[in-house]
Structure formats: structure tokens, C-alpha cells
Amino acid sequence: MxxxxxxxxxxxxxxxxxxxxxxxxARERLQLEREKQKARDKRRRTLVVSAAVVGVLGLAAVxxxxxxxxxxxxxxxxxxxxxxxxxxxxxxxLAIQTGKGEAPSTLTVWEDFRCPACKAFETNYRDTIHELxxxxxxxxxxxxxxxxxxxxxxxxxxxxxxxxxxxxxxxKFAPYHDVLFDNQPEETDDAYGKNAKLLELAGKVDGLDTPxxxxxxxxxxxxxxxxxSQDAFRTGKFRGTPTVLLDGKDIFGDQANPLTPQKxxxxxxxxxxxxxxxxxxxxxxxxxxxxxxxxxxxxxAQGSGKASSGRSATPSASSAGASAAPSARSAGxxxxxxxxxxxxxxxxxxxxxGH
Length: 355
What we know:
This protein is α+β, with helices and mostly antiparallel strands and about 350 residues long. It has helices spanning about 10-70, 115-135, 145-150, 155-170, 175-180, 195-200, 210-220, 225-235, 260-275, 285, and strands at about 95-100, 105-110, 140-145, 245, 250. Helices cover about 45% and strands about 5% of the residues. A 5-stranded mixed beta sheet has the order 1-3-2-4-5.
């Protein structure tokens, strides 16, 4: 018999081919997945390296900026180089002095040109202070702060203080200081935040409205100095403005013995008679044309006319010894900004603490 031919099992062949194809497909998929994973790892490494580079560069920039600012020494973080006005005195040159430097008594006054209670203090005590300065018995160190700007917003405290410092550069701080208080706007009116208003008031002081003064005001030359004075006020933990110290002692702190202009005069005159190097009143002392110490007329409380280069000596009822009663506008905020009476502690009965 012829041999029988056996046909291969087609089904088995197909199964084998399918298994081979499945194996190849699995290997290909595995290889493809590996390649994708490598690509993802590469991208991840690239991102990590890039982020690290950016971080290092950013840190370097910050360190460089800090080093640059530290290297300046005389600059303020609150804007521009720190430029003290001419003749500034005291710690860190943060005070503007009026009166004779050799005067035996020193009155330290922290004021804000927007502060109503500061105006009340000036209205009641100014003539007495001017008289004692003219006699050579008292010098005053003014520290200008920006408390109202912080409590109520605006920039009038800062800009008026800068303008006063510019007036000091011109040797006319005292009369311009008085003009600013005489023409003080309502506390809620930030009129002193406009340089045009400050320049307009400079016209009330003989010889002050000059190109140099205008440039100083418009450029904010002493802004950083004023900000540093405000920082010192905050560091000193004073409760409000005005803060007034006589030879370092808070003269508004004794509620049982409230201060009056007459008491201030008697205290300073007594110190002048008994203290070492006591100054004696003389015609030359009261008649000096000094920008800081003379007793020539100043602008009136209504702001009419021009102030001379000397201190105001306009008579007022307060100089006769009347207690410095608060005006209707003198109540305000303490240094913390809390509304209510001028001095929440109940002290300073002689004169309200306004802000």
C-alpha cells in the first residue's frame, strides 16, 4: 500500500504562530514602556536640575541685594538715602534744635503736623517757649513723626515733616514749623499730603520759597530721615503725640500737678538760676535776630501775613498761666491708634495726649 500522507495539524500551527506573535508583542511593549520611562526620568532630572539652578540664582540675587543695601549704611528701607537736615542733633541726628545750644534746660517734643493735640500744645505753650528760648534759658529738640498717617492713612504727616526739614536746611525751621501748625487742616483732611499746599505755606515765611526749598520738598529729600524718626518714636514706646519731656522727664505725667505755661516758665527759670552754667537774660539774648531764638513776630493763628525768620512772640492768654485745656479737636488716638480720649490712661491732665 502506498504510504499514507498525514497533513499537519493546521490548528497547532496557528497556535504556535500566535504564541510567537504574543511573545514578540509583549517584548515590544515592554521595550516601549522602558523607553518611555527613561524619557520620563530624563525629563524629571532636567526639571530638578533647572529648579535647583533657578533657586541658587535667586538666592544669590537676594544675598547680593542684601549685601548692597548693607553696604550703603545710610539708606532707609522705606525709600531713598537717609539725609538728615542741616544742623540735626541728638541721637542718630533725629532732632531739630531751636534756642541756644548752651541753654541749661532742654525740652524734647515729639510732634506730628497733622495732630490736633499737637496744635493745641503749640497754641498754649508756644509763646512761653519762645520767651524762654529768647532769654537763653531753654532749647527745644523737635522730633517729627508720622503717627496720623499710620492711624488714618494719607501722607501729610510725612510730607509736612519733610518740608519742615527742608526749611531747616534754609535756616527757617522755627517760623515754618509755626506756620504749619497755625494752618493745620482738619485731622481727616490730608491737605499736607499735597506738595503744592506745603509750598504755598512757605510763602508765609520770608525768604523760604526758593528753588532749593521747592526741590527738597518735591523730591522728598528727608523722607527716610522722617521715617527713621518715626521708628525711634515707636521704639521709645511713647503713648502718643505730643510727647513732651523736660530734661528727660515727662512733664505731662503728673496728674496731681498738671502742667501750665506758667509752671513751665517757673521751672525753667528756677533751673536757670540754680543750675551750673545758668544763662542770664540780657537785651542781646532777647533781641537777637537768630532764626531759632529771636522773638520777632510770626504768622498769626489765622495764617495771615508772613512769618519772620525768628520765633513767634504773639501774646496769648495761655502764657499768663492758664491750664492748657484741650480744644474741640484735641481728642484723638493714642500711639496704638485706638479711638477715644486723648490719653486713655488718664494721665497728662495738663495737656491732652492727642495721638
